[in-house]
Design goal:
Blueprint lengths: L1 E4 L4 H13 L5 E3 L10 H4 L9 E3 L5 E3 L1 H11 L10 H29 L12 H21 L13 H12 L12 H11 L7
Parallel strand pairs: 1-2
Antiparallel strand pairs: 1-3, 3-4
């Protein structure tokens, strides 16, 4: 199998962090999105949505969408469990994964894609007003996380999960989006330090 990867892009990075936590190594096929390689017909034949990452299995099956790829690896290698162990844990991981992905990660991405000059060729048209509309949504989501993280090392409790991976990538993505983490969020700041200290954060 092999993974079509786009380097510093946040979604492929989520998969690489997940694989690092699992101790799984697979070949990476670089896709240079700065050169719009993901928009070319040859990549569209691999993924018609023209986005990375894409996991290609040995039988030619292709799986796109970062969380779908992570779920595949969770099934073939359950340890350590990153989607929860019990029914309750799995439900909580799913809840927080969705909340962080839709409420923080996506909003940061909207700000970046619609305001950063480097995205002008990829996000056509760029809508600066849409970027501005999403800035307060980022901070509203961070306030929700601040409350949820009270007394918890990780977002679902004592155990690191895929929801924390999405959180880490979203918080890192704030820098290129020119969004600053407010200093009056001690629980979020401590969580971020904890996540950045994990070896997988360098994946």
């Amino acid at each position: 199998m092999k993974l079509y990867d786009a380097g510093r892009a946040p979604n492929p990075r989520r998969v690489r962090i997940f694989l690092a936590e699992k101790g799984i190594q697979i070949p990476l096929v670089p896709v240079d999105i700065s050169k719009l390689e993901h928009k070319r017909p040859e990549f569209a034949a691999i993924n018609p949505v023209r986005l990375t990452p894409v996991l290609e299995l040995d039988d030619g099956t292709r799986i796109s969408e970062s969380i779908a790829i992570c779920r595949y690896f969770e099934e073939i290698q359950p340890q350590p469990p990153l989607f929860g162990r019990t029914s309750l844990e799995k439900a909580l991981v799913e809840m927080w994964q969705r909340r962080i992905e839709l409420g923080l990660f996506a909003q940061v991405a909207h700000v970046f894609r619609h305001s950063h000059p480097a995205m002008a060729e990829m996000e056509v048209p760029q809508v600066p007003d849409f970027a501005e509309a999403n800035r307060p949504r980022v901070f509203a989501s961070l306030r929700i996380l601040e409350e949820a993280l009270e007394g918890r090392p990780y977002i679902t409790g004592e155990t690191f999960t895929v929801a924390d991976i999405t959180g880490l990538v979203a918080l890192d993505f704030m820098k290129p989006a020119k969004l600053t983490l407010p200093p009056d969020l001690p629980n979020v700041l401590a969580w971020y330090v904890r996540l950045k200290a994990r070896p997988s954060a360098n994946a």
